[in-house]
Design a protein that fits this description.
This protein is an alpha+beta fold and 142 residues long. 39% of the residues lie in helices and 19% in strands. A five-stranded antiparallel β-sheet has the order 4-3-2-1-5.
Protein backbone atom coordinates (compact mmCIF):
# COMPACT_ATOMS: atom_id res chain seq x y z
CA UNK A 1 0.00 0.00 0.00
CA UNK A 2 1.64 3.21 -1.11
CA UNK A 3 0.55 6.65 -0.14
CA UNK A 4 0.48 9.54 -2.64
CA UNK A 5 3.17 11.32 -0.61
CA UNK A 6 5.52 8.38 -0.89
CA UNK A 7 5.07 8.08 -4.65
CA UNK A 8 5.75 11.82 -5.15
CA UNK A 9 8.94 11.48 -3.12
CA UNK A 10 10.06 8.69 -5.40
CA UNK A 11 9.44 10.84 -8.46
CA UNK A 12 11.54 13.66 -6.99
CA UNK A 13 14.37 11.28 -6.18
CA UNK A 14 14.58 9.92 -9.72
CA UNK A 15 17.74 10.62 -11.65
CA UNK A 16 16.53 12.82 -14.50
CA UNK A 17 18.78 14.19 -17.25
CA UNK A 18 19.26 17.99 -17.27
CA UNK A 19 17.00 20.08 -19.44
CA UNK A 20 18.35 21.25 -22.75
CA UNK A 21 19.61 24.82 -22.87
CA UNK A 22 17.07 27.18 -24.34
CA UNK A 23 19.28 30.25 -24.66
CA UNK A 24 22.83 31.56 -24.28
CA UNK A 25 22.39 32.12 -20.51
CA UNK A 26 21.67 29.63 -17.76
CA UNK A 27 20.77 26.10 -18.94
CA UNK A 28 17.13 25.20 -18.49
CA UNK A 29 15.97 28.81 -18.17
CA UNK A 30 14.02 30.35 -21.00
CA UNK A 31 15.25 33.79 -21.96
CA UNK A 32 13.65 36.48 -24.01
CA UNK A 33 15.49 36.60 -27.33
CA UNK A 34 15.05 40.37 -27.64
CA UNK A 35 17.42 41.16 -24.72
CA UNK A 36 21.00 39.97 -25.25
CA UNK A 37 22.77 38.27 -22.34
CA UNK A 38 25.71 40.72 -22.57
CA UNK A 39 23.66 43.58 -21.12
CA UNK A 40 22.85 41.68 -17.93
CA UNK A 41 25.57 43.72 -16.15
CA UNK A 42 25.17 47.24 -14.82
CA UNK A 43 24.14 50.15 -17.00
CA UNK A 44 27.45 51.99 -17.38
CA UNK A 45 30.72 50.63 -18.72
CA UNK A 46 32.58 52.76 -16.14
CA UNK A 47 30.86 51.10 -13.18
CA UNK A 48 33.47 48.31 -13.21
CA UNK A 49 36.17 50.90 -12.46
CA UNK A 50 34.43 52.60 -9.54
CA UNK A 51 35.44 50.07 -6.87
CA UNK A 52 39.18 49.99 -7.74
CA UNK A 53 39.14 53.78 -8.03
CA UNK A 54 37.60 54.12 -4.57
CA UNK A 55 40.23 51.78 -3.14
CA UNK A 56 42.99 53.92 -4.66
CA UNK A 57 41.44 57.11 -3.29
CA UNK A 58 41.38 55.59 0.19
CA UNK A 59 44.74 53.80 0.31
CA UNK A 60 47.06 56.21 -1.52
CA UNK A 61 46.86 58.97 1.16
CA UNK A 62 47.53 56.41 3.91
CA UNK A 63 50.55 55.12 2.03
CA UNK A 64 51.91 58.64 1.51
CA UNK A 65 51.44 59.55 5.18
CA UNK A 66 53.19 56.38 6.34
CA UNK A 67 56.06 57.01 3.93
CA UNK A 68 56.41 60.60 5.16
CA UNK A 69 56.51 59.48 8.81
CA UNK A 70 59.13 56.86 8.02
CA UNK A 71 61.33 59.45 6.28
CA UNK A 72 61.10 61.77 9.31
CA UNK A 73 62.07 58.96 11.67
CA UNK A 74 65.00 57.98 9.48
CA UNK A 75 66.23 61.58 9.32
CA UNK A 76 65.92 61.96 13.10
CA UNK A 77 67.82 58.71 13.62
CA UNK A 78 70.58 59.81 11.23
CA UNK A 79 71.04 63.06 13.14
CA UNK A 80 71.83 61.25 16.41
CA UNK A 81 75.37 61.51 17.70
CA UNK A 82 77.31 60.13 20.63
CA UNK A 83 76.06 61.42 23.97
CA UNK A 84 72.49 62.21 22.83
CA UNK A 85 69.62 61.15 25.03
CA UNK A 86 67.64 58.44 23.21
CA UNK A 87 64.60 56.27 23.77
CA UNK A 88 63.96 52.81 22.36
CA UNK A 89 60.64 51.50 21.12
CA UNK A 90 60.51 49.38 24.28
CA UNK A 91 60.67 52.54 26.39
CA UNK A 92 64.26 52.40 27.61
CA UNK A 93 65.81 55.83 27.98
CA UNK A 94 69.54 56.24 27.94
CA UNK A 95 72.60 57.85 26.42
CA UNK A 96 73.81 56.84 22.98
CA UNK A 97 77.32 55.43 23.19
CA UNK A 98 77.86 54.27 19.63
CA UNK A 99 75.82 53.37 16.59
CA UNK A 100 76.20 51.85 13.16
CA UNK A 101 73.76 50.71 10.46
CA UNK A 102 72.39 47.74 12.41
CA UNK A 103 73.30 47.99 16.11
CA UNK A 104 73.28 50.82 18.62
CA UNK A 105 74.88 50.75 22.07
CA UNK A 106 72.95 52.65 24.71
CA UNK A 107 74.07 53.35 28.27
CA UNK A 108 70.97 52.96 30.45
CA UNK A 109 72.68 53.16 33.87
CA UNK A 110 76.23 53.70 35.16
CA UNK A 111 78.22 50.69 33.98
CA UNK A 112 75.24 49.18 32.07
CA UNK A 113 75.41 49.33 28.28
CA UNK A 114 72.95 47.44 26.10
CA UNK A 115 73.09 46.62 22.42
CA UNK A 116 69.84 47.14 20.55
CA UNK A 117 68.70 47.25 16.95
CA UNK A 118 69.47 50.71 15.58
CA UNK A 119 66.03 51.09 13.98
CA UNK A 120 64.38 51.06 17.41
CA UNK A 121 66.24 54.14 18.66
CA UNK A 122 64.78 57.64 18.43
CA UNK A 123 65.74 60.97 19.98
CA UNK A 124 64.24 61.47 23.42
CA UNK A 125 62.39 64.73 23.91
CA UNK A 126 61.17 65.48 27.41
CA UNK A 127 57.44 66.35 27.56
CA UNK A 128 57.96 69.74 29.25
CA UNK A 129 60.46 70.85 26.62
CA UNK A 130 58.24 69.62 23.79
CA UNK A 131 55.22 71.52 25.12
CA UNK A 132 57.16 74.76 25.58
CA UNK A 133 58.71 74.38 22.12
CA UNK A 134 55.23 73.97 20.58
CA UNK A 135 54.04 77.10 22.39
CA UNK A 136 57.03 79.10 21.13
CA UNK A 137 56.42 77.96 17.54
CA UNK A 138 52.74 78.90 17.79
CA UNK A 139 53.64 82.35 19.14
CA UNK A 140 56.16 82.92 16.33
CA UNK A 141 53.56 82.07 13.66
CA UNK A 142 51.17 84.76 14.96
Amino acid sequence: MSSPLLSSELLLAQNLPPKAATGPGTPGVAQDSSTPAATSGSGSPLSGFIMPLMMLVIFVPFFLLMNRKQKKETAARASLKRGDKVMTNAGLIGELVETDDRVAKVKIAPGVTVQIVANTVSPFVEPEKAASKDLKEAAEKK
